[in-house]
Design brief:
By secondary structure, the protein is of the alpha/beta class. The chain is built from two helices and 20 strands. The chain has a seven-stranded mixed beta sheet with strand order 2-5-8-13-16-19-20. A hairpin with a 4-residue loop joins strand 19 (166-169) and strand 20 (174-178). The protein is globular. The termini are far apart.
């Protein structure tokens, strides 16, 4: 049985797009301010992210234990809430709209590895549109788009497009129903 030599896998630092000193400085700042489990202010987390290139709107709530791989590849619109223990593993562009909720323990990644001989890094942007809600412990994979006002139910893996205004989830990662019933319809 063949084993892949990971020391020669392509892509290690190729997704950085900045000098190594900035990546290392961010690692220290993230640990001390952003990932810090203490209830320090959202403003301090936002300031640290913005200092390293993130674009973040007004009124954004950033809870403790947040992880962000590369803030210079992150955009968050106004009034969004990013919950505790969320990991934004953005080796490619990640855009989170306004009035979005990313709930506790969710993992959003723009990167993966080729399932072939060389384990090459593959990155694809992720977009979470305005008003969407990614509930607790979800996984959103690179190349995904979560539509306007869509909801992803707890523990769901998203690998593609979630249509606008739909509830998406288990079993099997499928559209379950509209988020908002039609006017005059009885909600069930």
């Amino acid at each position: 049985m063949r084993v892949i030599d990971l020391s020669v896998a392509p892509g290690a630092g190729e997704s950085w797009n900045v000098p190594a000193w900035k990546v290392y400085a961010w690692a220290v700042t993230e640990l001390l301010i952003v990932t810090n489990p203490w209830q320090i202010s959202s403003r301090a987390r936002k300031a640290a992210l913005v200092a390293f290139g993130a674009r973040i709107g007004t009124g954004v709530i950033l809870r403790p234990r947040l992880r962000v791989r590369f803030p210079w590849k992150l955009v968050i619109g106004s009034r969004s809430w990013i919950g505790e223990d969320v990991w934004l593993h953005n080796q490619d562009q990640m855009t989170i709209g306004s009035d979005v909720v990313i709930s506790q323990g969710s993992f959003i990644t723009t990167g993966s590895h080729a399932l072939r001989r060389d384990m090459a890094l593959i990155t694809k942007p992720v977009i979470v549109e305005d008003g969407a809600w990614v509930t607790a412990r979800c996984i959103v994979l690179g190349g995904s788009r979560i539509g306007v006002s869509a909801v992803v139910t707890p523990g769901t893996v998203v690998a593609g497009d979630v249509p606008d205004g739909m509830v998406f989830g288990q079993p099997g990662g499928a559209v379950l129903r509209p988020r908002f019933p039609a006017v005059g319809a009885v909600e069930g």
